[in-house]
Amino acid sequence: MFRTEEMDINMGPQHPSTHGVLRLVLGLEGEEIVDVRPIIGYLHRGVEKLSEHRTYSMIEPLTDRLDYVAAISENLGYCGAVEKLMGLQIPPRAQYIRVALAELQRIASHLLWLGTHALDLGAMTVFFYTFRERELILDLFEQFCGARLTYNSMRIGGLLEDVPPGWTDRVRHFLQIFPSRQKEYEDLLTVNRIWLGRTKGVGILTKEDAVALGTSGPTLRASAVDYDVRKALPYSSYEQFDFEVPLGTTGDTYDRYLVRMEEMRQSCRIIRQALDRLPEGEVRAKVPKYIKPPAGEVYHVVESPRGEQGFYIVSKGTEMPYRVRFRAPSFVNLQALPTMCRGRLIADVVAIIGSIDIVLGDVDR
Amino acid sequence: MADEQDGKGDKPAPPGGAPEATPPQATPSPEASAAPPAPKPPPAAPKPAAPAAPAAPPAAPKANPLTAPVPSIALDRIREKFSNQVVDVVYYAGEVTVKLKQERAEEIWRFLRDDPALRFDYLSNVTAVHWPERPKPFEVVLHLFSVGTRQRITLKLDVGEGEQPPTSSRVWPTANWHEREVFDLFGIRFHGHPDMTRILMTDDWVGHPLRKDYPLEGKPEDHMQLREVTTAEHVYTFDKSTIKGFGWKKEVEKTGEGRG
Lengths: 365, 260
Known about the structure:
A: alpha+beta, three-stranded antiparallel sheet, about 15% strand
């Protein structure tokens, strides 16, 4: 007469906690999650196909729109890939400015993540605090290149322009006030009992699973796997900077939170070093007007705020690439979601999605 | 940086069969990071290049630092164990690309993952490239990384039209979604894949958009599904003659067949 039955429930694609158009089909037994099937592609714009029909310089604005909350990292990775393909040497000043920009972008991206993640879990105050500081960073970007989200700020061979006068002082000012602001978020969350209850032990990803599923970035490092592209395969002269790679211990949602908080501190350290040792000189290498790399192929990876951002470019020696593949960290990290969710409750799914920090523009490309 | 400039300046011509002769080094350079290639000159290169005068001169002006061979333990190990499975080796910008035969691919993958000296436990990326003019028109590309030893290697398989290459998702579970995407966009079915369904395009999509013969703006029949959009007053119809761009013609008439 009474029986139990598995039930499928649809979550999204219009759901505030999925941070975009992500649809999840949850297989439930009671309130416990048996399986999750993410359904993606709602934001697929065919960027890889478009790239095959554009010149190398015309692709850069497209990369802005992949991971639109961390466009600098995409620019950096794409330009780096083409430069590698052409065998270009980038002037040290440009490399240092790129590093400073990428790290500012990392802080901005983590602030957006922290605000929305906390908002998902019911801590609304943090959202207003983090957006206050994110605004400061966006202002810095606006002063640098005139845009607030889709910067298109780099060029193959370096940068379009040097930083405007006084910009480094404004960055220094930001670095001065940021640590105390970060302490405010931590006061609100790190030892907050509700926060601990919602995140500790939730969505555990073991070390073995994290590597086997190819996750990267803070999601991987929270599971105590020491892989940061900036250290492992340094690019844009990251080997000259002194910073640490924070690692988690258990791989739960709380660890991913701690890792990102520490990453913001390390990013501040890197920016400070970049500004202190900023070399003089050109910001763009001598590049031909029409960029025509020799036939060949490269796979170039950078550490975006979300993880390993890969760019695979096949050139046939023409003005347009023959094939471009964007290895999106969000796409791969999202694949680990079912593993993290099994056996948890629906409310935890919200916490776990927040903690892997996906951007649907990056997932669907 | 200084190291790179050295490498760039006086790069010797890559001698003919150097890669096999290159002894495995203690610390392999995993990849010439971001900055342009800094391949270390192969140890035995300068000396033999000079006496081989007749053969060298044509190659000398072509000596390109981008395509210079770099030492790779992984390649040496593959050659040692599966010498007859290696079809081709390409060096570019400090990266090593090895093309393998399909038959024993899974065995080689497992070997690469489990060999204590290599430990390629991290599959970065799986993708494909379409070369319509080749007899086997597809290339499946795997980018491997080793978290422990920080090496990188690129593996390739040639795949013919309708052929089913082995899935790598049994070796690295992360390949599951990557291979679904390759199936979705190229139409390559992987043998043994647990869930060979479309991932980015809708399930009822016809065709595989990243193939070279698939037009950039889609096929006419793809537009046809949007053919009839009824609003309050108008029916917008799609005219095949205006296919350039999104040449929609606003007409107040209904036309015949189309998809769906």
